[in-house]
Design brief:
5 helices, about 0% strand, mainly alpha
């Protein structure tokens, strides 16, 4: 029988987290190239770590959900949930009556409508 020690599981979890973090940094550089993201990968990694912690605090735990939440924070600002400009979006993201993935789906749909309707612009 194969026995895995607790330390080995912890090491595997750390390694998986580091790989996820790197994929997320790469994803952001690829999908938000002109957004003013720090070109310093170390600084961006620190920002991503903070955003991942925020995502976890609000119940986002799967890789796709965390990725989408972090993407929103990078796009709209780390104060996304407290910024008066995004009150409706924050309410959707925090709606405990919905599962986390559904909250993100609804928030992205609302964001797309706001951009299409001209109520929100992401250009500087």
């Amino acid at each position: 029988m194969l026995m895995i020690k607790t330390e080995q599981i912890s090491a595997l979890n750390r390694d998986a987290y580091v790989r996820f973090e790197q994929r997320l940094v790469d994803y952001l550089f690829e999908h938000l190239p002109h957004s003013g993201l720090s070109e310093d990968e170390s600084a961006l990694r620190d920002t991503v770590k903070t955003s991942i912690q925020s995502a976890a605090r609000y119940g986002y735990s799967t890789e796709p959900d965390v990725t989408r939440y972090v993407y929103l924070e990078m796009l709209l600002g780390s104060d996304l949930l407290s910024n008066p400009q995004f009150t409706r979006l924050a309410a959707l993201l925090l709606d405990s009556a919905q599962e986390p993935g559904a909250r993100l789906d609804t928030a992205f749909e609302a964001l797309a409508r706001a951009i299409e309707d001209g109520r929100l612009t992401l250009e500087e």
